[in-house]
Amino acid sequence: MDIEDIRCVLIIGAGTMGQQIALQCAMHGYEVIVYDTSAKALETATATIKTYAEQLVSQKRLPPDEGNAALARISFTTNPEEAAKADLLSESIPEDPDLKAKVFAQFNKICPPHTIFTTNTSTLAPSMYADATGRLGQFAALHFHNYVWDANLADIMPHPGTSPETVKLLYAFAKQIGQVPLVLKKESPEYVFNAMFGAINKAAITLLFNGIASVEDVDRAWMIITKMPIGPFGMLDVIGLDTAWHIMQSKAQMSGDPQQQAVADRWKAEYLDKGRLGVKTSRGFYTYPDPVYVRPDFLTGETN
Questions:
Q1: CB contact at 8 A, 49 and 19
Q2: Can you tell me the distance from the alpha carbon of 127 to that of 130, in angstroms, rounded to the nearest whole number?
Q3: What does the DSSP assignment read for 125-139?
Q4: CA-based nearest residue to 27, from 65, 59, 60, 58
Q5: pLDDT tens digits, the chain, 304 residues: what are they?
Q6: Of 45, 109, 178, 281, which has the most beta carbons under 10 Å away?
Q7: 88 closest CA partner among 14, 3, 148, 183
Q8: How do strand 8-12 and strand 31-35 relate by DSSP bridges?
């Protein structure tokens, strides 16, 4: 199978990352099918993807006609049988290895034999559910970062059974959709950037939960020293506090560490249960669309 043979991309999961991967593929000429079991999730995804496209057009990063053409290439369905024409599958569902295994097994029965299967998991090793795909050689992690069109980085993480041909094909595909591909030499669930970012987040959350520093001062310290325009808590708002919780919960369950579980439980109670999911709900650690960290006086310590 060559890169020219990939024409239709199936997105499993209509959440934040599924939406972004769908639009990125469509903007680069691919036919895209977004599948989810929830009609409501698909309705939300349809509106969000349209908003993303409109924002890129308004920023003059995408010509209006190309934005409309990209949206026209995306279809949405709750019918798994529409996967029958997919050449590449990208999965972005919750970080539950049993759920992922069940979904991959389901689509292995539907998709053509040549379809490449990929997982966008952030915390799991693909070998944990590779057998369920029924196509060991044609399966690997193809991991994207938020926002896909800004981050422009895709991690390719093969499991021990992934064929060299699949790695080569995914490398070419990542480049085809405007990403810089990084091929990991072996499985490491947190990839490259996430391994570093996770350590920063853990330190930031510890400072906050232990009452050592405020959200604003943690971000202020990071922004002043690194000269970055956003701090750890601002970045977590962009990623989504629900996404962060799923990662925390997955790690806590896999480790069995009661302290990790306590942090995940507190995170859920203080943010998720109150509807504070970050940018997507206009409130997380900050209030949007005008978070205080973008104001000129934030770094002087005068804005909190």
A1: yes
A2: 5
A3: -GGGTHHHHS-GGGE
A4: 65
A5: 899 999 999 999 999 999 999 999 999 999 999 999 999 999 999 999 999 999 999 999 999 999 999 999 999 999 999 988 999 999 999 888 999 999 999 999 999 999 999 999 988 999 999 999 999 999 999 999 989 999 999 999 999 999 999 999 999 999 999 999 999 999 998 899 989 998 999 999 999 999 999 999 999 999 999 999 999 999 999 989 998 998 898 888 888 899 999 999 999 999 999 999 999 899 999 999 999 999 989 999 776 6
A6: 45
A7: 3
A8: parallel
Strand order in 31-35's β-sheet?
A: 74-77, 31-35, 8-12, 88-91, 116-119, 139-144, 153-158, 180-183
Distances (CA, A) of 241 to 201, 234, 285: 12, 10, 9
Angle formed by the axes of helices 241-255 and 232-239, nearest 10°: 100
- Does the domain at 3-183 match CATH 3.40.50.2300? Answer given as no
Domain with CATH 3.40.50.720 in the chain: 3-183
Q: What is the pTM of this model?
A: 0.85
As a whole number of angstroms, the distance between CA 240 and CA 284 comes to 8
Neighbouring C-alpha atoms within 13 Å toward the C-beta of 126: 32
| CATH code assigned to 193-292 | 1.10.1040.10
